[in-house]
Specification:
The complex is a heterodimer of chains A (about 400) and B (about 280).
Chain A lengths: L4 E6 L23 H17 L4 E6 L9 H18 L2 E6 L11 H8 L2 E5 L14 H17 L3 E6 L3 H18 L4 E4 L19 H19 L5 E3 L1 H10 L16 E4 L4 E3 L2 H6 L6 E2 L6 H7 L1 H16 L16 H8 L9 H19 L13 H6 L1
Parallel strand pairs in A: 1-2, 1-8, 2-3, 4-5, 5-6, 6-7
Antiparallel strand pairs in A: 8-9, 9-10
Chain B lengths: L4 E5 L11 E5 L2 H9 L6 E6 L18 E4 L3 H4 L3 H4 L8 E6 L4 H10 L4 E4 L5 H16 L7 E2 L1 H10 L5 H4 L7 E4 L5 E2 L16 H11 L10 H4 L13 H28 L5
Helix pairs in contact in B: 4-5, 5-10, 6-10
Classes of the chains: A alpha/beta (about 400), B alpha/beta (about 280).
């Protein structure tokens, strides 16, 4: 990490109560003990101190995070708060759960540790999210029930949804209506699937057919602009893209940052360190090392050849692909390494969803221009010149 | 108080203590301790002259002191910019790019990584002016450009605000503001002008140049951009034909008019007095 903020995707357990067709993780029963968590955090904070990084966000993911009991998180939260004060660092937490194991016992820790919010995921129609030996329908029914309980408890829930061929058939209007009108969700995002981890019949169909995916996304954006944009509904990545093209700045998803290696890292319950959750669970050859095996997390990151390979990817793309000539280089940089590698077996080529991304960027750019009503935002007028810094 | 900002090699920091300085070095590790000093009020800027070194030492600091990354071979060095992007979260950073064949690749990537850019230009031939024109169009009209590309940006602002800013000032070569101290300790105005003729006073350089140019009744005498340019493109060769660079300045001027119209239209549609 080289910025002033570190994002840690922490997998406290690789155990899961679901069996989704497209899961990119190799599941085990491994879980992190509280003692090991305290040690892990100590090492991460020592690294942050060495690198003058002030803020840490821990993204708690699994496996399924709720396979550990709420009491585990209450104790982990105590460890975090104590360490944050001792090391004078700011630590935020975010939770991603499938909600299958949720009940009201979780509410206290969700309030205390996660700001009364959580992220979950559901597809429409649901073809691939299942309980072990169960059907997608059963999964959806339990999800609906637990979602309602959590919602009634005042928990703010954001949802990630992955389109599939049936999604394209029902169309964007019904898809949007399902989440916003049927479920009352005002914050959801669309992710593209990739065939990470052990191969399954579902994964053999990836990447999704890009023309259909593109049409679906543009239709969905149309509906969002018409019904949701001015009514408090957030649909990712549309909301941040439109913000980018109007205001010149936005929090774009990690797949479009200039180099994700500079911003985030993932650690599994055994202490294995890699770029993100898919890399750490399913691609041992891409692990950076083990945080418990080495004294210095800094040295682990600095000396990892796997990390250096990942870090060099944008440099290669800019010379070998057509990214430099692309109008949208500034908001893509060749896309996601794991989507690329899992689809092509080659890290040093651009994201297979390039065509879809470009179409979406172009659509958002044109729509932003209409919204702005003038070309004022097209001129970098607001930025001061470097000369004014020098002349002080 | 000494009116000048001195661009000095890092080795001369001690000799210029108490004066406002821009400190330059090829080695990031040589600049890092200067940033770590408590009293930095006279430190105006750091210049890193080589982009291939290990910037680890600089990434351990954080300061409001600007950092200028000076490229020497933009056509081949531009991919390195990815490794330098993390500096943006630590300092106000700019990339200075010499206008040499292929420089626009470095501009596009710098801009895409959110670096402000300064073009270091001397007397460009027609091919380079064409490449500059493409960069200017990119700066003016590309929606993902959100940082200045100099000298276009300051010139545009000066035209809009009707400020008497000229290219010597924008390019940080104004003898009234800047001194460049060579590695040997000699003083001139900028590396572009080094060395001056023996005995020539840097402060008088610009006035002497303009007086000569106007006295010779060359194209400067009738140039509509004289106030903006002040003979910038007539150095070192006074016979440099400015027609193509004047077209660049004209494009910036036209963009100013276009922007004024846009602002006016915006005010009318939004009903606001000011945007």
């Amino acid at each position: 990490m080289t910025g002033t903020h570190l994002s840690l995707i922490l997998l406290p357990t690789l155990s899961c109560n679901a069996d989704c067709d497209y899961c990119f993780e190799v599941k085990t029963n491994d879980s992190l003990t509280l003692d090991r968590f305290a040690l892990l955090l100590e090492k991460v904070l020592a690294y942050m101190n060495e690198q003058a990084i002030q803020k840490l966000t821990i993204y708690w993911q699994g496996g399924e995070v709720m396979m550990l009991p709420p009491e585990w998180y209450e104790q982990a939260h105590d460890v975090i708060q104590e360490a944050a004060v001792a090391k004078d660092r700011e630590i935020d937490n975010a939770l991603q759960t499938n909600l299958i194991g949720y009940n009201n016992k979780w509410n206290r820790i969700l309030f205390q540790m996660f700001g009364n919010s959580l992220g979950s995921s559901l597809d429409y129609p649901n073809l691939h999210r299942k309980l072990p030996g169960g059907s997608p329908h059963e999964f959806t029914a339990i999800w609906h029930r637990n979602f309602q309980v959590a919602k009634e408890a005042g928990i703010d829930i954001g949802v990630i949804s992955i389109p599939n061929p049936e999604t394209f058939k029902v169309g964007a209007e019904r898809f949007y209506s399902y989440f916003v009108d049927d479920l009352g969700i005002t914050n959801f995002q669309i992710n593209t699937p990739f065939p990470g981890g052990p191969i399954t019949e579902t994964k053999k169909t990836y990447p999704l057919e890009t023309d259909q995916l593109t049409k679906f996304l543009l239709d969905l954006a149309d509906i969002w602009f018409k019904n949701g944009y001015r009514n408090g509904v957030k649909v990712g990545p549309f909301d941040e893209l439109i913000k980018y093209f109007i205001e010149g700045d936005a929090q774009l998803p990690c797949i479009w940052r200039d180099n994700c290696v500079n911003e985030l890292v993932s650690i599994d319950p055994n202490g294995n360190v890699a770029q993100c959750d898919c890399w750490v669970t399913s691609y041992p050859e891409f692990r950076f090392g083990n945080i418990f095996s080495l004294n210095s997390f800094s040295n682990l990151l600095k000396n990892s050849e796997a990390r250096q390979r990942l870090q060099s990817r944008p440099r290669f793309l800019i010379q070998q692909e057509d990214c430099l000539e692309c109008d949208y280089l500034a908001i893509c940089h060749g896309g996601c390494p794991i989507r690329t590698y899992s689809n092509t077996g080659n890290l040093f080529t651009k994201d297979p969803y390039c065509h879809t991304y470009k179409s979406l960027f172009s659509y958002m750019e044109q729509h932003a221009a209409k919204l702005a009503q003038s070309r004022i935002s097209g001129y970098p007028k607001a930025k001061k010149s470097f000369l004014s810094d020098i002349k002080r | 108080m000494d009116p000048y900002i001195y661009n000095i090699p890092a080795a001369l920091v001690g000799a210029y203590r108490g004066r406002r300085v821009i400190v330059r070095s090829h080695d990031p590790a040589e600049l890092a301790p200067i940033l770590a000093e408590k009293n930095k009020e006279n430190l105006c800027c750091l210049q890193l002259l080589s982009l291939t070194g290990d910037i680890g030492a600089l990434l351990l600091g954080k300061a409001s002191v600007p950092l200028d990354l000076v490229m020497s071979s933009p056509y081949s060095d531009y991919p390195q910019l990815y490794d330098l992007a993390p500096l943006l979260s630590r300092y106000p950073v700019r990339v200075t790019i010499p206008v040499v064949p292929g420089f626009s690749k470095a501009v596009r990537l710098s801009s895409s990584l959110n670096f402000p850019v300064k073009l270091e230009v001397t007397q460009p031939d027609s091919n380079l002016v064409q490449e500059m024109a493409e960069v200017l169009a990119y700066y003016l009209h590309h929606s993902t450009v959100s940082q200045p590309i100099e000298f276009f940006h300051s010139l545009l602002m000066a035209f809009i605000e009707e400020e008497p800013l000229n290219l010597w000032t924008i390019q940080e070569e104004d003898p009234a503001l800047f001194r460049y101290v060579t590695d040997q300790g000699g003083e001139t105005v900028s590396p572009r002008l080094a060395p001056l003729d023996e005995g020539q006073n840097p402060s008088a350089f610009l006035e002497t140049l303009i007086t000569k140019l106007l006295g010779e009744k060359g194209e400067c005498t009738t140039c509509e951009y004289l106030k903006t340019c002040r003979g910038y493109f007539k150095w070192p060769r006074k016979d440099y034909a400015c027609e193509s660079v004047k077209a660049l300045l004209k494009t910036v001027k036209e963009a100013t008019d276009e922007l004024r119209q846009d602002l006016s239209a915006y005010q009318k549609t939004s009903g606001e007095d000011r945007p």
